[in-house]
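Entry 12.
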Amino acid sequence: MKIQRALISVSDKTGIVEFAKELAAAGIEILSTGGTAKSLQAAGVATVEVSRFTGSPEILDGRVKSLHPKIHGGLLYLRGNPEHEEQAKAHGIQPIDLVVVNLYPFEATIAKDGVTLAEAIEQIDIGGPSMIRSASKNYQSVCVVTDPTDYPLVLEDMHKEGGGTGLKLRERLAIKAFATTSAYDAAIADFLNREQETCASFRMDLPLEMRLRYGENPHQQAELYGDFGSYFDKLHGKELSYNNILDISAAANLIAEFSKPTVAILKHTNPCGVGSAPDLREAWEMAFSTDKQAPFGGIIVCNLPITLALAKAISEIFSEVIIAPDFDSDARSLLQKKKNLRLMRMLKPAPQNRRDVRGVVGGLLVQDSDSADVPELEHRVVSSRPPTKDEIEAMEFGWKVVKHVKSNAIVYAAKNRTLGIGAGQMSRVDSSRIAVWKAHEAGLSLKGSAVCSDAFFPFPDGLVAAAEAGATAAIQPGGSVRDPDVIKAADERRVAMVFTGTRHFRH
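Predicted 3D structure (tokens):
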């Protein structure tokens, strides 16, 4: 059956004018609402406003405009069913064969800083999901399109089918539409759970992005869901593994902490070294010299495009993945000679306000991501000696890194680089010993460094060991019952210390 009538109502107007023009050229009557109708009419597309089609005006500030029997009857009645055909005729219901709808930008709205509950509620779409579901339920006769990237598919199918659409396409688009409304409702429920603190339920409904060869180990099956591809574009190399994706995500989160030109190297999601400098080549040397053994087979991430000079330096070691906002053409040509190296272009920064989800026995753990900023350290000094400017900068730098190191975490830092990193030990003192040993192995002096701890020192011994290693400043959350003892140990050794009041455990 040829498409006679289409209803278009979109929030995302990408490509809609061009699509509507093609429909109009095929002799299809176009119904539309509000801003969409205005956009189409301004582009010269003949449009019948829904209020005129139904004979019922928009009311309640536009909250009610498409909720009408002539709309939903036109979508839902079964073509060829004598009783339905008779009732449709009796009530003046005309068929609507194509629905093009995408929803109010609820998720984009709640992602904004300072959004209020009232603002969020106004972005809860009612008419859109209702039309999508009506059309999807009747996909045997009605085609529903919720994604602008599907417009070319519909036009191509119409050309093949003589002005209509094939059942196979309608069925596929209906499934996609139900997934869209399901994810939309889940986002609303999740937001209201957090906003109202009811925590009644948690749901996730993400599209399959790719099936992976295997998970962390070859005997484990794995898939990637969501929109990972909207953040990263693979320019070169073999397919990504489960572990690659974890590392890429960790690298993106770490590099998002820095505004100055910075290079970071990670292994098993832990930073091996981080450096900041006016020139990325110099920043690389700082990061790499922190630990020249661990980076083999690791992940390299930069917050500026990679130049040929930097590419030459980093190509001297084997890396699994290199991530950057872009690659100069000659740098890319050089790096692409390594067939097993994956080059990832970072399309946009990692989102800072998101929900982190982890599977546990019998359920899921859900929390806000750790996006706490570095506080103003000058106002948080607890030692008798205040830190110098260089010590403040070293503490700030190390504090950005230590939150990305697995607990127990210790980082020794200068004002623009890491000097030693200890991760994932059962004892905080052991993490500090590893960091000191790493620095010694790399030939780096810890004299005048800042020691950064993701959680409080439970005893003075950790602070004492850091001072003996050469640290002259310490940054930690504080909060231990033995804080006075730790402060006393710092004062006895002339160590400047600040308490951030924020812990950065990373299990």
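Annotation: The two ends are 58 Å apart (CA to CA). The chain has a mean pLDDT of 89.
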